[in-house]
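hey so i finally got around to running the thing on that chain from the lab meeting. sorry it took forever, my laptop kept dying and i had to restart like 3 times. anyway pasting the input first so we r on the same page abt which one it is
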Amino acid sequence: MTLITDETGRVLARRFRAGDEAAHLAAEPPCLEREWLGLQVRRALALLHPDERGVLRMAYYGDMTQAEIALELGLPLGTVKSRTARALRRIAGLLHHVGEPRAVCRQLGVE
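ok and heres what got predicted. didnt touch it at all, straight out
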């Protein structure tokens, strides 16, 4: 479960940092599975509570540590840790139907 959310976070963070979808597509060979995975993650994120979604966005897209998130939000570190853990459990459950994207891309020869 963590592998899925970690890989998904890395894929989406790269896209977020690139900013431009065309630049992203030019930088990496297209992989239908990867694009489908991105859609699934966006849908799952939309179903999370805003507080949970916020800490995941700050951690994965903002590349912030839990301590930095706690400072930014003015929350105790323990609250950020519990929100993050709860969000990762929920998103893993929402994405249980998703397999490892690298394996599919490798089979297609586009990794």
